[in-house]
Amino acid sequence: AQKVTQAQTEISVVEKEDVTLDCVYETRDTTYYLFWYKQPPSGELVFLIRRNSFDEQNEISGRYSWNFQKSTSSFNFTITASQVVDSAVYFCALRSNYGGSQGNLIFGKGTKLSVKP
Amino acid sequence: GAGVSQSPRYKVTKRGQDVALRCDPISGHVSLYWYRQALGQGPEFLTYFNYEAQQDKSGLPNDRFSAERPEGSISTLTIQRTEQRDSAMYRCASSLAITGEQYFGPGTRLTVT
Questions:
Q1: Which of residues 14-73 of B touch A (CB under 8 A)?
Q2: Half-sphere exposure of residue B1, counting CA atoms within 13 Å on the CB side?
Q3: Which of A25, B23, B65, B83 could cysteine-pair with B92, CB 3.0–4.6 Å?
Q4: B25-70 pLDDT, tens digit each
């Protein structure tokens, strides 16, 4: 089965705190892609990052960093020194070829992050 | 350049009516996807196209739902004989290639009364 689990439904932090959003995935495929999207209160879905299964290097982009660990099937997302503008729902997603499907993303249920001033 | 656009942004329709939702992908993007997002949930896959070919429609809930992309650019998702349970945000996304990141449009909020 293919599945993405975001166990944290809601997280609330105070500005400047660091916060980590967890993502655990399941797939039988050896080739797959992982994604993070941000959905601010305005409702659009904003692409943040794509990672393929062969690249386990961690990535940093400004205050954002991602930790991909195949051994634990996790792709966690950390925001350093959070800001009020980071308040949003964050979705983790998986794309793999298992079962013949090649195109679609399988999304987790999302984690709602609230950053308070 | 311009992102993915969808129209209408909001659609209220009466139960039993047909609706057509339009998606205009990013220019040059080969792959186009339709998703449905219920409140408080992540998007759920409906169908996708490479160029004009519908590659996977396994996510379409039933035969009242159909989609087309006749010239490999704009796509239309049609829901016939709408039901209240069809109320949701319908999102379109496109990607340069099948393995690429998907960029989403603003969505069409469909309400069936």
A1: 31, 33, 35, 40-45, 48, 50, 55-56, 58-59
A2: 7
A3: B23
A4: 999 999 999 999 998 899 999 999 999 999 989 999 999 999 999 9
